[in-house]
Design a protein that fits this description.
homodimer; alpha+beta; Jelly Rolls; DNA-binding
Chain lengths: ~190, ~190
DNA sequence: TGTAAATAGTGATATTTATCACGCGACTAA
DNA sequence: TTAGTCGCGTGATAAATATCACTATTTACA
């Protein structure tokens, strides 16, 4: 678990063992079972999560309780309701476990200490955030330029592992189409 | 112009005059007329841009040269083809001026020097990047949960200034609908 | 192991949106 | 001034997608 986080960081920023020990000391470990909520819409957001293993979904429930998938989070992904986390306001989304998961949790307080204490981890978060922004923009472009069939193709190409692990109804929600329409695309 | 940049930074991170002078020295000023290209799809991306005045559009052209609006950039916005800028690869999008604009330009080399030389500006970029990521996620949510009419409403609420300055055909492209459909919504 | 829930497919139909075609007024540059 | 482009609206029609209803199969778990 520790090795995984260290490796994840070192993909972007080389660090010494001491630096890693400092970084690691700010996280706590948690385990969630399928169906459990890490973040609940309407409540506070305590942590930013790093997924060690398992699979999560970031979802939004509208007034009629209909569920929309904003994002998935698999191994090595960082996830939270960022808006609520950084501003310490109530969550507008929920984060739910869809495969038993081990995660590392970072409170906002520890996040700030960490960034102050380590220029390198701050740079890591900056690069991660930029990568996230670029990925979001790609997904927006997909919505603007492509129909359901094309978006599904792009998803298959981009996250082939995900498609194996997630029911199609969730993929449909992620793509912004009804599950029936997605079902008919395959044929 | 300098005051504007300084104010923009200080919204997130307080800085001294000396620190600002150091930051400012890494930017160069450019001016663009309506229609001019700051970034051209297929070519290199020299700069990250800070918009002092005017209005830009970040666009993607598909094979049939159809144009899609990925983003607008007005006063105080930071814009580029981030993917191409950070990885120094060819642009997959174009950045075009739609109202005469004054911009401050930051090369990748200067960006890196700046981040190394100033912890504060790095934190500024981190916070800006996070904000951008959150905004993108909101827009994605809008695509997943809402139809054209609702997305237009949300745009009106979020960027009322923009709607005044931009032809509806461009707004339609930004919203991912045809101009005809957008036109019919108003009625 | 048995039962309920979850997943997936599909037909029928309604709704939304795209596309093509056209007209009109405003602005612009020769 | 005048032709040309641009922005915008709108009708007719086609295509894409949503919705509702039902079934079959698989999966989870008590």
């Amino acid at each position: 678990m520790d090795e995984q986080l260290k490796h994840q960081i070192e993909k972007l920023v080389p660090i010494t063992d001491d630096e890693f020990a400092f970084i690691r000391s700010h996280f706590i470990v948690k385990n969630f079972k399928k169906g459990e909520l890490l973040i609940q819409q309407g409540e506070g957001v305590e942590y930013l999560y790093y997924v060690v293993s398992g699979l999560l979904k970031l979802i939004y429930n509208d007034e009629s309780a209909k569920e929309y998938i904003v994002s998935f989070a698999m191994e090595d992904w960082w996830e939270s309701d960022f808006q609520a986390y950084y501003t310490q306001t109530k969550a507008t989304m929920s984060l739910q476990c869809i495969e038993d998961a081990d995660v590392l949790c970072l409170s906002l307080e520890d996040y700030k200490k960490l960034c102050e204490g380590s220029q390198k981890i701050q740079r890591f978060f900056l690069e991660k955030s930029i990568a996230g922004h670029i990925a979001s923009q790609q997904r927006i472009l997909s919505f603007i330029t492509s129909n359901a069939a094309e978006r599904y193709e792009q998803l298959l190409k981009r996250y082939p592992q995900l498609v194996q692990r997630v029911p199609k109804s969730l993929l449909a929600s992620y793509l912004g189409v009804s599950r029936e329409t997605l079902s008919r695309l395959s044929s």
